[in-house]
Amino acid sequence: MASQGAFLFPTFLFFFLAGCRTPAAGVGNSTEFIREACGGTLYPQLCFSSLVGYAAVVQRSDVRLSQVASNVTLARVRSVSANVSATLAGAGAAAGPRLRAALRDCSEMLSDAAERAGQAAEALRAVESATGPALAWQVSNAMTWMSAALTDEDTCADWLAAPTAAGGGDSKAGEVYRRVREVEKHTSIALALIHKLGF
């Protein structure tokens, strides 16, 4: 990872980030707060439906919302990773070497994605107790890790797309591809909410 200095934000940003710990002004309740925050993501409806159940935890905190979104993403990435591993284990000779190779590579990438998402969640847990440059440093770390997870997922999906589209796979492979694309949406949501902490 790049040096700490490369990730430090301008001084004025420290005060903005500190303000994220307090309830946002002008938001009627936590549910509407989540709806409003999700409106800034690429998938506002999915964002809201997956996070509104945690309204009591989030209250009106941008930091808590990003923490919840990251934890949801981590759980989903782990689930898809396990699904890909199971599909690979059950893939017979009929699946073809191209598809088996794609599943094997995808399994490795999703394992990495889960690790990166976990690192992002860990960095966000440190945000609530951090101040000054350390606060911006942790937010930057979370953005870096979650972005890396998204890249891993996208690479996995690209590897799966070729053999599946070419007819080399079966319905299970197609389902794996769809699940990977779906988890990418959740990772994108988490990244957007983390990004909101810094900009």
From TrEMBL:
Residues in the signal sequence: 1-26
Top-rank lineage group of the source organism: Eukaryota
Family annotation (Gene3D superfamilies): Invertase/pectin methylesterase inhibitor family protein
Record's keyword terms, sorted: Signal
Domain Pectinesterase inhibitor: 29-193
One MF term in the entry's GO annotations: enzyme inhibitor activity
Protein name: Pectinesterase inhibitor domain-containing protein
Species for this entry: Zingiber officinale (Ginger)
